[in-house]
Amino acid sequence: MRVQIQSRLAYDFAQPTETIAAVLAAHAPGQIVESETLTLSDGVRMAESRDPVSGARLLRGSLAGRVSLDYRAVVRIGPRLPLPPEVQVAPWSALPVEVLPYLLPSRYCPVDQFLRFAAREFGSIQPGGARALAILDWLHTNLDYVHGVSTATTGAAGTFIDRAGVCRDFTHLGLTLCRASGIPARAVAAYALALDPPDFHAVFEVFLDGGWWLVDPTRLAPIEGMVRIAHGRDAADIAFLTTAGDVMQTEMNVGVVRLDSPKLATATVQPLVKASHNPNTVEEAA
Amino acid sequence: MRVQIQSRLAYDFAQPTETIAAVLAAHAPGQIVESETLTLSDGVRMAESRDPVSGARLLRGSLAGRVSLDYRAVVRIGPRLPLPPEVQVAPWSALPVEVLPYLLPSRYCPVDQFLRFAAREFGSIQPGGARALAILDWLHTNLDYVHGVSTATTGAAGTFIDRAGVCRDFTHLGLTLCRASGIPARAVAAYALALDPPDFHAVFEVFLDGGWWLVDPTRLAPIEGMVRIAHGRDAADIAFLTTAGDVMQTEMNVGVVRLDSPKLATATVQPLVKASHNPNTVEEAA
Amino acid sequence: MRVQIQSRLAYDFAQPTETIAAVLAAHAPGQIVESETLTLSDGVRMAESRDPVSGARLLRGSLAGRVSLDYRAVVRIGPRLPLPPEVQVAPWSALPVEVLPYLLPSRYCPVDQFLRFAAREFGSIQPGGARALAILDWLHTNLDYVHGVSTATTGAAGTFIDRAGVCRDFTHLGLTLCRASGIPARAVAAYALALDPPDFHAVFEVFLDGGWWLVDPTRLAPIEGMVRIAHGRDAADIAFLTTAGDVMQTEMNVGVVRLDSPKLATATVQPLVKASHNPNTVEEAA
Amino acid sequence: MRVQIQSRLAYDFAQPTETIAAVLAAHAPGQIVESETLTLSDGVRMAESRDPVSGARLLRGSLAGRVSLDYRAVVRIGPRLPLPPEVQVAPWSALPVEVLPYLLPSRYCPVDQFLRFAAREFGSIQPGGARALAILDWLHTNLDYVHGVSTATTGAAGTFIDRAGVCRDFTHLGLTLCRASGIPARAVAAYALALDPPDFHAVFEVFLDGGWWLVDPTRLAPIEGMVRIAHGRDAADIAFLTTAGDVMQTEMNVGVVRLDSPKLATATVQPLVKASHNPNTVEEAA
Q1: Helices (H), D109-261
Q2: Minimum CA–CA partner of D156 in chain B
């Protein structure tokens, strides 16, 4: 699938402020950035660097005054298979070392506090895909998608009590319950086709049968239409803007459009790799 | 300096439990493991893997029943310089990408909640070494080293209110205040010479002038005598034992002895590298 | 029903410490203290005062060194009816003014945080007895009675996440869910017949159809065999010992025995008053 | 001093909602309501009841649709003396029973969590007025008066970390530190002369030398010009509007004007009672 993504962010910085922006499409398995343009407002300089582990491309700089970032790209997304119930969780000793942190608690995911609940609620379900799907069902049944309930400091414990939140909150509670159930899970920031209203989206991935499987706990956008920006332990790692001080957002605009027709896409994209080991790949049939 | 370290841990696992143990001396800059032995109780198998980024060597396995780990090693530690006030903090755009996560909030370090306090208390102090030293002074003045106040779920916010805790708590609040003040900071698990009573120690490092500087916020042990085990965002990443379920600790014993005489050590260890860029190095004069 | 209650508490006070003990059977509707003795260790003086609102009798004093309190009493308990589903909750404007605080959040009962969950889970159930019974069923299904999970600072939010605790925790979550569902609810400290092992018990009361109905959210002891000590908003108000500083408990022993035979009791105790307006009364037929 | 107070509140209730409004001047020692008018919008009925303990006069009703409350009153306020350093705190056994709850933790005042900090920071200061004044100085030095930092769920622990808030937050932290230091303290809602911009004000009282002494931890308004509405353990008890469900505030307007000239007032108001025992009295010389 080919999609055109665009975002516009504008801010007012009262004083020079160290800033990281994560808005560029990642150079990551599962997607190819065919073309892109980044336009910063006059006089603004940001350095781009690519995280060698995640493929995220961060923009960094000390920003002051009125600043805008305009980003446009055409991205080809490889096929993504929905999480199957039969994929297995590996014993810890068989996990790649770099996956281990995604079993641990993080700022918004106090996994240690949810071990009892996870065992009570999901402990009897086959570990692996079936259990992750049960957690997604639980989130769907027990959380309401509502703006204005959560704030930037709300974590999974707050959302578990509130029973409401936005994509970030669904993702935090999903990450927490998966990790507390023994399933490695990491947060993903993405552009999402068909998200209404359009916005940066927070979803997550679980590591099963040797690959990362993308899921959307809000069920608001199809995983096939997501363009990955960054991944990390939780929203702290994947925020589209991280600053060392206060800043006023004056504008934010996100758009995603599909460029190829749905029918055509189905016909031409043929995954060659074994889905269970690299489910989110971009390799296609010639 | 050469030290002999040893630890003995014993546990009772009611059922087979996925486990990670971080007790081996790291293969990291600043120290050389000259010799070591690891003895697991009969029938226990754990796989060793080295984290390519941190040099930490993790033992992983599914453990059941009564299990003990005995570890002994002789480690040569390179010289470590105390943090000087004049070292500088780099702008974010000049930081290595892998340092960025150590500016962010983590499970026990809710940096986002401490931005105001950090600005109020330390904002007027020269960023860099001087500010980090001011934070260490603040911890020394405002926290009491007391067992039994904190638990495994206590984070920096709790310690800030309690004004008391153990090495882990001092470290969490130190990490939080440094990050909230713009100084990258990461937690370090170590064996520590002269710690009384002997125990696994939690300390931290700040990234200034291009290098990581080790500090002990409890001021209970000299940084020169520490053998690094692992580093990470906070205690969640560097626990000496992480398990997927409940476990009963039945024994824990740590010991560290210096093998060379202090005078001799001073004579033979000559750092060759520029301290401000790689302060904790093991390279020595021939 | 006539029961004999006894408790023995012993403490070691490192320095003179202001103390309130709530161990005496209350002079409250629903029970008559037929005889009692209180023995304090040598040299200890505590003043008794009766709270005119609750009937609780508090012992107060500045205690130092080793102190013991021995209390024994024979108490006649009036009949108590189980909460019927059909009792109604009054509109706020019809509630006695002194009942209003029991609708509000308190230290361990953050009612404001549970409004959404309460509405989601219990909002469709008839307000009044039916809804309170649904809350009790929810607690029974979703909480495990386990020692060692909660501490003295655990509130209803922690218990909601942990899904486990002791009588105090069940009571806090029950109080919180009732108040968040519009039902006035207050905590009650009691001696409880048939509690195994014997201990001070924390239960609660809901205000419906103009009277307070006693319920035991742990279902560990029959409400008919409870001797009331004090009531209040939550455990902060009804602790058996409140001190201005640290104290070491060296002994604690509670016992409750039934004096009359069950059959006899049924024969002689005849409630005359309308249960729905004063359900926990001690008035009996002559 | 004679002041004219007025408030106008307007709300939009999506559905009939149980509501308590606390806007009327209390019938309490220290002030006399000379005249007053309350105007509710058409069709709205609220019952007034007076809390026999606090003298607060609550309006209660089930409100629906657009509702406004307009209140105007002329109130004569007795003299209030500033808290003197030499007033003493009584031993717990000498406190009136009804004062005891004001030593305990409440929803927004987790006193139990602040015992260590209070002892560390204020333990060496003479208990009583001197210590309460030291707490007020600490608040003044360590907190910034800033809108937008706190929310309706923020308690003293949050404010202690944020180091910023509004009158309610200053009051919660003040109450918490006083109680944790052994000084009974209760929250007071008031109309305040000279508060800019005019608003409902939250202040507090400490119980020393047998009387309640009013203090304003924000130092934004003189205690002499305050008209008491209600008191309680914290903001949960004294909110100007408490509802059983969501409601939209559409208007809020508060005004306080002094009717007599400052000079005249000084001449005619002569407190007859001993200030140390009933500091906030309205009794005047004939």
Answers
A1: 115-122, 129-142, 156-162, 167-180, 235-238
A2: B161
Query: What are A54's two structure tokens?
Result: 């995640």
C241 contacts in D (CB within 8 Å)? none
pLDDT given for residue C188 in this prediction: 98
Nearest residue of A to residue C110, measured between CA atoms = A161
Residue A269 φ/ψ, nearest 5 degrees: -95, 115
Query: Chain C: nearest CA to A183, how far in angstroms?
Result: 19
Please tell me the distance from the alpha carbon of residue A92 to that of residue A102, in angstroms, as a whole number: 11
Q: Which chains touch D (3 or more CB pairs under 8 A)?
A: B, C
**H-helix or E-strand spanning residue B119:** helix B115-122
Structure ipTM: 0.90
Cβ distance D188 to D175 under 8 Å? no
Residue B117 Cα, gap to closest chain D Cα (Å): 6
C-alpha–C-alpha distance, residues D79 and D268, integer Å:
11
A24 CA: distance to closest CA in chain B (Å): 16
Angle, CA of B251, B256 and B261, to the nearest 5°: 160
**CA C77 to each of CA A170, B143, C211, C261, D267: distance values in angstroms, whole numbers, following the listed order:** 50, 51, 17, 14, 62
The answer, yes or no, to whether residue D274 has pLDDT greater than 90, is: no
Alpha-carbon D16 to chain mean position:
29
Identify the burial level of A245 via C-beta atoms within 10 angstroms of its C-beta, where 0-12 means exposed, 13-18 middle and 19 or more buried.
Answer: middle
Residue with tokens 């909602």: D17
Give this prediction's pTM.
0.91
* pLDDT tens, position by position, A258-286: 998 765 444 333 333 333 333 443 333 33
* D84 Rama class: left (phi>0) / alpha (psi -120 to 50) / beta: beta
The answer to whether residues D251 and D10 touch, using CB atoms and an 8 Å cutoff, is yes
CA–CA separation, D226 and D190 (whole Å): 6
Q: Which residues contact A169 (CB under 8 A, 6 or more apart)?
A: A143, A149, A150, A154, A156, A159, A162
Q: Which two tokens stand for residue B70?
A: 């005995």
pLDDT in tens, C209-221: 999 999 999 999 9
Q: Are strands A248-258 and A2-21 parallel, antiparallel or unpaired?
A: antiparallel
| Beta-sheet pairing, B47-50 with D226-232 | unpaired
Q: How far is CA B283 from CA A278, B29, B77, B230, B273, in A?
A: 42, 8, 9, 20, 7
The reply to whether residue C144 touches residue A120, judged by beta carbons under 8 angstroms, is yes
Q: Which of D186, D146, A237, B30 is nearest to D159 (CA)?
A: D146
Collapsing DSSP to helix, strand or coil, B121 comes out as helix
Cis peptide before B91 (omega within 30 of 0): no
Rg of chain D over CA atoms, in angstroms?
Answer: 19
What would the DSSP string read from start to end of chain A? -EEEEEEEEEEEEEEEEEEEE--SPP--TTEEEEEEEEEEPTT---EEEE-TTT--EEEEEEEEEEEEEEEEEEEEE---PPPPTT--PPPGGGS-GGGGGGGS-BTTB-GGGGHHHHHHHHTTS-TTHHHHHHHHHHHHHH-EE-TTS--TT--HHHHHHH-EE-HHHHHHHHHHHHHHTT--EEEEEEEETT-SS--EEEEEEEEETTEEEEE-TT--S-GGGEEEEEEESSHHHH-SEEESS--EEEEEEEEEEE-S-HHHHHHH----S-TTTSTT------
Q: Which helix (H) or strand (E) holds D189?
A: strand D185-192
Which pLDDT tens digit goes with each residue over D96-140?
Answer: 999 999 999 999 999 999 999 999 999 999 999 999 999 999 999
For chain C, which domains are there? 2-78+241-268 (2.60.40.2250), 92-234 (3.10.620.30)
Straight-line distance from the first to the last Cα atom of chain C, in angstroms, rounded to the nearest whole number: 15
Coil, strand, or helix at residue D81?
A: coil
